[in-house]
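[recover] target loaded
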């Protein structure tokens, strides 16, 4: 990392830093953190190893920068802000589901190594590697992005269920909604064999997002009914039956 009292980076240094981030995003997404070397990244970026040490300190510093960059491009903050400002929890839920599915589908609409895939496809592929072989970067991603999104999802669902965000039923519903979305990203090899004609076009992504939203809202309404389990089910640590 540049010393704190170092002069502002030159245009050439900024270009080198951007090239390293671009190359690192591609290589980390293709091979994962453990299997990637700094030399692999520098070779693709057309930079020397010293440039990584100067701009990012080491491979983990570069990896953290790539995660932050990809999450910024994915638009997490925008979706969260819009959902928080929605007066209707139904609209907020629809926005969150659509945003999640759209971000994940950036990976489905691109192929590794395709220059047209762009930075937007990094997040899902890098996170797939993180799920298989977690690094210290996963804790930071959960703290900065996944955790706040999960908390907002529980707040929205809690409003729909008329339950606290930390209620066990609210949490179960949050994981049910998230699971429907994640299925289309992480089960893609299976889906392509079970439903080979499924084309994840923007129109299809919108259709799936609407289906998940409608399906989830119907289930939530059932839990709201007098016979629904949300009125009867209490988390073990919440005391009163």
């Amino acid at each position: 990392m540049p010393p704190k009292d170092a002069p502002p980076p030159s245009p050439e240094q900024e270009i080198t830093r951007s090239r390293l981030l671009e190359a690192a995003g591609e290589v980390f997404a293709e091979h994962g953190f453990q299997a990637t070397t700094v030399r692999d990244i520098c070779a693709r970026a057309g930079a020397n190893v010293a440039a990584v040490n100067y701009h990012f300190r080491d491979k983990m510093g570069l990896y953290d920068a790539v995660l932050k960059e990809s999450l910024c491009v994915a638009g997490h903050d925008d979706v969260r802000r819009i959902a928080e400002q929605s007066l209707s929890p139904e609209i907020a839920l629809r926005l969150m589901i659509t945003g999640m599915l759209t971000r994940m589908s950036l990976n489905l609409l691109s192929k590794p190594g395709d220059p047209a895939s762009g930075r937007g496809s990094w997040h899902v592929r890098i996170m797939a590697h993180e799920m298989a072989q977690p690094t210290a970067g996963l804790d930071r991603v959960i703290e900065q992005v996944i955790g706040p999104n999960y908390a907002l999802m529980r707040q929205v669902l809690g409003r729909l269920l008329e339950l606290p965000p930390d209620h066990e039923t609210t949490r179960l519903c949050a994981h049910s909604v998230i699971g429907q979305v994640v299925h289309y990203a992480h089960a893609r090899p299976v889906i392509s064999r079970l439903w080979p004609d499924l084309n994840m076009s923007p129109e299809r992504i919108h259709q799936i997002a609407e289906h998940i939203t409608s399906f989830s809202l119907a289930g939530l309404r059932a839990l709201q009914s007098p016979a629904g389990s949300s009125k009867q089910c209490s988390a073990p640590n919440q005391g009163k039956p």
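[recover] notes: The chain has two domains: 12-71, 75-226.
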